[in-house]
């Protein structure tokens, strides 16, 4: 009987540690099949919880050792409920100077929590849409990377700022 309860205990322990995140408001990942095409846009429809509190926004990525670049360029666009649009081109460091991939994880898959915006107040009520697209180019080449290898999931996260 004791032998059969060990896997159940481990599963319950996993859920306790992964679901206890009091700062999380929105946290969704979408898979990227095989490779991330330069024309593929990952979209997230968000209904913020209120229009008075400030939140921190993040782009989350999961990547494998197949990711061969030291950095990552993304185009992140946020569409507001009443028609306003903000579009940013962002650069993130993905590897240290030795080429070792950054991020968390003990396997060859790493998770990266990348800052997008800080202390955002969703003043407009309604649905916001966040669109994320890669904008990678190789040095000395004009044409962008057609299919970006090594990115397995793209996510978007909204969280309450950590009180200090």
Automatic annotation (TrEMBL):
Under the heading Pfam families, the entry gives:
GldH_lipo
Q: Which InterPro entries does UniProt cross-reference here?
A: Motility-assoc_lipoprot_GldH (IPR020018)
What are the record keywords, sorted?
Lipoprotein
Query: Lipoprotein as a keyword?
Result: yes
This protein is called what? Gliding motility lipoprotein GldH
